């Protein structure tokens, strides 16, 4: 029973609410009751959360400050430029060499000794002006004799131009040939037509035979009267002469009759046809010659005579050197008294009044180069000075050197002065296009990262890589065709090299 009562009291005590007693701090003894300990734990938790909140606020403030400091440091570290629209003059750059419009090396065409040199370096000469000559005593006999040949050839040329003898002879030849052709044609017609088919001619020939026989009979009767006389008797001789003539006339009349009565053979016809053909050909030749000369000397003859004169003159000209065009003496390699051979070069002449520059342009740019485009030229030998030029020629065939295809482009220097000399190296910028109101990026800001054109943009104080594509370019800026960048953003001109190396190695991606 005692134990059950004890259990009931214990159970009742467990069901009762605990009693918390608040006492002043001064009255708390060193061993506080259990309810007092529970209130202190709650107070410590509040204090802990307060400390953590304050620390978090402090971290946020530090991050903001550090971020602002980073932005300020970035702004002070990187050189930037604002992306904006502007104007771009697209150019193609190249280097080349200055040359004169015309250049000639003047060489001797024969052997000899120089008698005199009439010019000096820097002299301006005109086409045909004599530069030097050889002593006549040192020339070959063929050149010396050409002087006499030239006189004869020149006289023949003058006669051909001024004389009328050839014209008169041609006219006479036409008349003679015309007569010969008429005779031949008459003979041919007579042989082919006036025979048995023409009865009038046959009758006439027959009558002639009868008359001739009658005359022969009369002559014989007359001769018989004196036949007994001596042979030196004049009457006998006269009678004999008359008889002989009568017999000859009878013989000819008989032949004529027989001719008309006979048919001509093929040989006779061929001969008469040939005579006609020859006479006709001679007439045609005479007419051609007349037509050639009737209006004066034949131009072909004049040309041939002039060529003869020019040929002889060229032989004589071998004894001297002349300028082939207007230019300036730029080299002299001989002195008076020198012995020279055919091929010895004594002078160089350049037409430096017009200077050209030949440059090689890569195949990727050649289709943008056109004649007439303007260019600026500079020379290492002429500092702080620019010259103007224009494209005059663009080659249509490229030259391959070490696997690289280049095309020759020729420019004319528009404002040369005495400082520009043939042979100088020129840097050339050809203006191929003028673009307005376009987004442009500085060339110095563009990098090549993993084969991709890239720029770096400062965003929130941090460099950000942006892949772009550029178009037309000048010496300082390029046209921005595409890329994840907006007008007004800041482009970094000097991105950190470590950042670019990391991008190139693939450690970061834009």
Explain the overall architecture.
This protein is of the alpha+beta class and 510 residues long. It has helices spanning 2-15, 34-77, 141-162, 165-193, 199-224, 234-261, 266-293, 299-317, 363-366, 497-505; strands at 80-82, 84-100, 103-107, 112-117, 124-125, 130-134, 320-322, 327-332, 339-340, 345-350, 355-362, 374-379, 382-394, 399-401, 404-413, 425-442, 447-449, 452-459, 462-473, 477-483, 490-492. The strands form three sheets. It has a six-stranded antiparallel barrel. Strands 3-10-8-5 form a four-stranded antiparallel sheet, with no helix packed on it. α3 packs antiparallel against α8 (299-317), α4 (165-193) runs antiparallel to α7 and α5 (199-224) packs antiparallel against α6 (234-261). Mean pLDDT is 81; it is low at 1-40.
Summarize the structure.
The chain has 10 helices and 21 strands. With 510 residues, the protein is of the alpha+beta class.
Name some characteristics of this structure.
six-stranded antiparallel barrel; alpha+beta; four-stranded antiparallel β-sheet; 510 residues
The helix tally amounts to 10
> Termini, distance in Å?
89 Å
Low-confidence sequence ranges: 1-40
Q: Give the strand tally.
A: 21
Q: What best-fitting shape do the alpha-carbon axes yield?
A: elongated
- The computed structural class is alpha+beta
Biggest sheet, in brief?
6 strands, antiparallel, barrel
**What's the overall average pLDDT, rounded?**
81
Helix content: 40-55%
Alpha-carbon Rg, integer: 63 Å
Strand order of the largest sheet: 2-11-15-13-12-16
Strand content: 25-35%
